[in-house]
């Protein structure tokens, strides 16, 4: 076990996004570690591999933190509810929160039949219990049955049950809720490159990955963009290959999901968010009993309140 506490006058600058000596920890855990030390707390790393910390103040008050956001403030059942997309959707719908129309399935045949009934719509196929955009596929309207079966198989490879639902059009925003307040909002943009009229997509990916903020294993603010099967499939659907040379300022997307963990970009838009959406995020967090969580909301315009009919 490693115990840490800053000496009087010491301060760890947040400008250095990677905490020296703790590069193996998830970036979110590094941030908690830095901020706790800067607030004068003693930090004990109980389990480095599992990102498990114990925080102590001068009065002896103790708080355990796992993976930056799992604390005693949230119950275990709250964590299980948030982990299960099917249950989360049911509860949020009951709280009059808009969720994509769809259903969950435990066998491929039923999932495929549901997709066939919605063939003319853009659909999403995803595992019930994964994070980081793992196992998620987006199917355009009237996609081939072969592609639909492939998407369903991929989802089932990661979970015993899957969800097939309508694709929500718009921009994706992650609202960080702590207690009764939305403290931050970021715009999450799928992995992409911008052309210069000279270099191939593969070259542009390499250039973008040189950004020191990009790494692997969630230990840096952003993840490196990959050129695996998923990215190549997305390029193919757009009529491109990795050797295509985009025109100057032409933006090419390599992913349909916007997760930072799959190479997406993140922009701080906290000050732009309409107060209504910040309140909506808090309502969503409360619906599942969460005190600390991220709430994803798809919106056409973050700055203007949309009139939503339920």
From TrEMBL:
Record SUPFAM superfamilies: Glutathione synthetase ATP-binding domain-like
Question: Domain named ATP-grasp: which ranges?
Answer: 89-306
Q: Which GO terms describe its cellular component?
A: cytoplasm
Q: Which domain of life is it from?
A: Bacteria
- Extract the GO molecular function terms from the UniProt entry: ATP binding; metal ion binding; ribosomal S6-glutamic acid ligase activity
Q: Which PANTHER family does the protein's record reference?
A: BETA-CITRYLGLUTAMATE SYNTHASE B-RELATED (PTHR21621:SF0), RIBOSOMAL PROTEIN S6 MODIFICATION PROTEIN (PTHR21621)
Q: Which UniProt keywords apply?
A: ATP-binding, Ligase, Nucleotide-binding
Q: Which organism is it from?
A: Leptospira interrogans serovar Australis str. 200703203
Q: Does the keyword Phosphoprotein apply?
A: no
Entry annotated with the keyword ATP-binding:
yes
Q: What is this protein called?
A: Phosphoribosylamine--glycine ligase-like protein
Q: Name one GO biological process term.
A: SOS response
